[in-house]
């Protein structure tokens, strides 16, 4: 560990720590963690981004976009659906997926903007 990125002595602000710990108890951060875990897979991130670009895609479209089999695309879409990231509708024999809400799109676009900012500042 680089000593420059840690405190030289151990001390903490007890009031601040207690306040934040109390706030943590009232938040469901495990679901936030699960959301990020679902998006951490590169193919699921690509699918989410693709759905930001076009409001709705069928499983076959997704498979072609991420260059995978329909089964693999379907598996990723199922994972995203279980996490509340995408929703789907059936039309005849086709299944169409879309982002569940606009906040997911904002999250993806914010992450991309953050990454560009990091690249500029490196």
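Sequence proposed for the structure above (122 residues):
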């Amino acid at each position: 560990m680089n000593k420059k990125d840690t405190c030289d002595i151990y001390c903490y602000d007890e009031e601040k720590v207690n306040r934040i710990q109390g706030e943590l108890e009232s938040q469901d951060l495990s679901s936030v963690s699960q959301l990020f875990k679902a998006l951490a897979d590169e193919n699921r991130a690509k699918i989410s981004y693709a759905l930001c670009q076009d409001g709705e895609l069928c499983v076959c479209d997704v498979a072609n976009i991420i260059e995978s089999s329909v089964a693999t695309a379907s598996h990723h879409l199922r994972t995203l659906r279980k996490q509340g990231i995408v929703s789907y509708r059936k039309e005849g024999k086709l299944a169409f997926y879309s982002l569940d809400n606009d906040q997911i799109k904002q999250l993806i676009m914010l992450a991309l903007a953050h990454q560009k900012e990091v690249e500029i500042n490196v």
